[in-house]
């Protein structure tokens, strides 16, 4: 069974969020990414693989090294979801406020 990956899975893990943040400043090779984490290169590589499968980063082979680059436009889906969720919750809170004001009368 092939697991479907999406941007929400990419940001679900704090390590992956930190990798995205590092890459938002520019492309890095895997060795440069690994140096900031207290985990093995193999563990970081698993996170990078998931981020790549989610479409949040690209990994390009240049000579003997692999370079990772963030595709930050993929995070627009998250921003859109947050905006819509915020609208929904604001509407619900406004209705609750109105109900509470009516019950106090």
TrEMBL record:
Record-linked Pfam families: HTH_5
Molecular function in Gene Ontology: DNA-binding transcription factor activity
Cross-referenced PROSITE patterns: HTH_ARSR_2
HTH arsR-type domain location: 1-90
Stored InterPro entries: ArsR-like_HTH (IPR011991), HTH_ArsR_DNA-bd_dom (IPR001845), WH-like_DNA-bd_sf (IPR036388), WH_DNA-bd_sf (IPR036390)
Coiled-coil regions listed: none
Protein known as: Transcriptional regulator
Organism: Pararcticibacter amylolyticus
Origin organism lineage: Bacteria, Pseudomonadati, Bacteroidota, Sphingobacteriia, Sphingobacteriales
């Amino acid at each position: 069974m092939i697991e479907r990956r999406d941007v929400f899975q990419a940001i679900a893990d704090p390590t992956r969020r930190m990798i995205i943040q590092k890459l938002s400043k520019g492309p890095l090779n895997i060795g440069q990414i690994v140096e900031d984490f207290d985990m093995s290169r193999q563990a970081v590589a698993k996170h990078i693989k998931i981020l790549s499968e989610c479409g949040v980063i690209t990994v390009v082979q240049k000579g003997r090294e692999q370079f990772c680059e963030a595709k930050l436009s993929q995070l627009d889906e998250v921003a859109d979801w947050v905006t819509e969720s915020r609208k929904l919750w604001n509407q619900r809170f406004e209705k609750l406020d109105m109900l509470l004001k009516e019950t106090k009368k």
